[in-house]
Write a structure and sequence with these properties.
- Keywords: Glycoprotein, Membrane, Transmembrane, Transmembrane helix.
- This is Tetraspanin.
- It holds the Pfam family Tetraspanin.
- By secondary structure, this protein is mainly α.
- It contains nine helices and no strands.
- About 70% of the residues lie in helices and about 0% in strands.
């Protein structure tokens, strides 16, 4: 009987943890859906081919939601084998997040190289109509930048001979007309001089430590759930405790 308070305490903590875990899954699912619907074209600028990142988030979020509910059910039932299965799943999530975090940090320079290649290709083949071109316009408008390294990158694009530099490079859209943007002498006074590649990569470098810290923090939080599930399973088994 003296173990009942301990079991009750562990169950309460594990239910709270499972609920938080479930919320994490719901957030990942929402971010994945949002990324697919809203950021698809822009994500393509940092990948050589179509990226599956939104689908990975959607799938991961769905699985976490299911196992979060399973964790609550296993805890309420007080079933040792269910709790062990839950702990095993948490260990797999922990390893997956750890590998993803380490891989992102180690291969960050390759990510920068990929972004440089894909963004250069998008600029050279810009036509103002396809998804990649709209993504370039969005990026230049949002970051107030022009071209890969500077506005001169547009001189080699297929768009420049007949249309000039895209209007998304203009820092004052009301004082920016197609004739000025086709004039290599006048255009520099109408457009941003800083390239987008430098802005994006500096942001990545500045925030990489924060991103890595959050990733590892979330990963190691799985250890708490694993510990709670294993302890509760062991105590229930040792004391032949069953919840009626």
């Amino acid at each position: 009987m003296e173990t009942k308070p301990v079991i009750t305490c562990l169950k309460t903590l594990l239910i709270v943890y499972s609920f938080v875990f479930w919320i994490t899954g719901a957030i990942l699912l929402a971010v994945g859906v949002w990324g697919k619907l809203m950021l698809g074209p822009y994500i393509s600028l940092i990948a050589d081919n179509s990226t599956n990142a939104p689908y990975v988030l959607i799938g991961t979020g769905t699985i976490i939601i299911v196992f979060g509910l399973f964790g609550c059910f296993a805890t309420c039932r007080g079933s040792p084998w269910m709790l062990k299965l839950y702990a095993m799943f948490l260990s797999l999530v922990f390893l997956a997040e750890l590998v993803a975090g380490i891989s992102g940090f180690v291969f960050r320079h390759e990510i920068k190289g990929t972004f440089r290649r894909t963004y250069t290709d998008a600029v050279l083949n810009y036509n103002a109509k396809d998804e990649a071109s709209r993504a370039v316009d969005y990026l230049q408008n949002s970051l107030r930048c022009c071209g890969v390294y500077n506005y001169t990158n547009w001189f080699g694009s297929v768009f420049y001979p007949s249309n000039g530099i895209p209007a998304s490079c203009c820092f004052n859209s009301s004082d920016c007309n197609p004739d000025d943007l086709r004039n290599a002498t006048v255009a520099p006074s109408k457009v941003y001089h800083q390239g987008c590649f430098e802005l994006v990569t500096s942001f990545m470098e500045t925030n990489m430590a924060i991103i890595a810290g959050v990733t590892f923090g979330i990963a190691f939080s799985q250890l708490i759930g694993m510990l709670l599930a294993c302890c509760l399973s062991r105590i229930i088994t040792a004391n032949q405790y069953e919840m009626v």
